[in-house]
């Protein structure tokens, strides 16, 4: 028996048990879809969405995860693969993705079939997290050997900001990497979440996550019980991005040169995302 078949069997068995556990609730609940920009709290959002399994017939584990790039080769997937993946999801699934906001993808997601969320993080913290992840945590990553070959952290951070424009592996600067996700910000069907708000304003942010579901799924469970189930589902030790549980860590690592090249490459992005009002930081 293959591992994938075993996981498939266990997933659907557990999903069936959840259906029996909450037999009084509808069986055709929308798919919970967590969309994230890489290194922005993907695992944290996954944990929170799975917390709904304590109060509704959602499963206790993810159906699947989709990424626009293959992790080990760095190859960009064909857009049709994202659509096929979305079409594979069924009612009451919980799924996670680094998913571009292409027009045809947005059309699929912003329907009654999905309850979508989009989490992102200060891009300055993203590039710092990216360095740690590629260099020290994910040895199979397509950029791992290159990052290890660089002389120090400062050199690696420059690459995470500016990308590798001369490489045969697509890896553009941080603003260009974020650009395909910007379309999610303009859709009222998608709840946008700042990673930082889950650290500094957790109760209010979890309340927004809960209310986004309740606007579509009128659960009979008391609100405080739902909120408590989301809170207790958070396990920082199982979230690589939640490495320190802090925000603004970029201030410890950015030199004046890093600040300059980041402003040149992505200063407008910080303003667009609400992290700065101008480039005077």
* Shape field: globular
How would you name the CATH homologous superfamily? P-loop containing nucleotide triphosphate hydrolases
Top-tier CATH class = Alpha Beta
Could you state the order of secondary-structure elements as H and E? HEHEHEHEHHHHEHHHHH
The Rg value, from CA coordinates, equals 19 Å
Number of domains: 1
Mean pLDDT: 93
Could you explain how this protein is built, in words?
- With 281 residues, this protein is α/β, with parallel strands linked by helices.
- The protein has one domain (3-273): P-loop containing nucleotide triphosphate hydrolases (Rossmann fold, 3-Layer(aba) Sandwich).
- 47% of the residues lie in helices and 9% in strands.
- The chain contains 13 helices and five strands.
- A five-stranded parallel β-sheet has the order 2-3-1-4-5.
- The radius of gyration is 19 Å and the shape is globular.
- The N and C termini lie far apart (56 Å).
Keywords summarizing the entry:
about 280 residues, alpha/beta, Rossmann fold, 5 strands
Q: Which SSEs are present, and which pair or pack?
A:
Layout: H1 3-21, E1 31-36, H2 42-50, E2 64-67, H3 79-88, E3 94-98, H4 103-109, E4 114-120, H5 123-137, H6 144-149, H7 153-162, H8 174-178, E5 191-194, H9 195-200, H10 202-214, H11 223-232, H12 250-253, H13 256-273
Parallel strand pairs: 1-3, 1-4, 2-3, 4-5
Helix pairs in contact: 3-4, 5-7, 7-13, 10-11
């Amino acid at each position: 028996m293959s591992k994938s078949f075993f996981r498939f069997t266990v997933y659907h068995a557990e999903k069936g048990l959840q259906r029996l556990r909450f037999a009084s609730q509808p069986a055709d609940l929308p798919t919970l879809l967590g969309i994230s920009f890489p290194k922005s709290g993907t695992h944290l959002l996954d944990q929170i969405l799975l917390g709904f399994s304590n109060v509704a017939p959602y499963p206790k584990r993810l159906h699947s995860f989709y990424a626009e790039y293959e992790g080990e080769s760095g190859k960009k997937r064909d857009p049709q693969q994202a659509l096929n993946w979305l079409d594979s999801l069924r009612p009451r699934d919980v799924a996670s993705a680094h998913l571009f906001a292409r027009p045809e993808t947005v059309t699929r997601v912003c329907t009654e079939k999905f309850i979508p969320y989009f989490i992102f993080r200060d891009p300055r913290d993203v590039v710092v997290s990216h360095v740690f992840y590629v260099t020290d945590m994910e040895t199979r990553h397509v950029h791992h050997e290159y990052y290890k070959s660089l002389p120090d952290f400062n050199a690696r951070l420059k690459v995470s900001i500016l990308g590798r424009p001369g490489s045969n592996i697509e890896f553009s600067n941080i603003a260009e990497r974020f650009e395909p996700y910007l379309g999610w910000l303009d859709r009222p069907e998608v709840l946008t979440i700042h990673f930082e708000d889950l650290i500094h304003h957790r109760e209010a942010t979890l309340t927004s996550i809960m209310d986004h579901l309740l606007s579509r799924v009128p659960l009979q469970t008391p609100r405080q019980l739902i909120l408590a189930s989301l809170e207790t589902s958070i396990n920082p030790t199982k979230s690589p991005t939640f490495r320190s549980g802090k925000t603004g860590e970029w201030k410890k690592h950015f030199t004046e040169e890093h600040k300059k090249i980041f402003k040149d490459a992505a200063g407008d992005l910080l303003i667009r995302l609400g992290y700065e009002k101008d480039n005077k930081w």
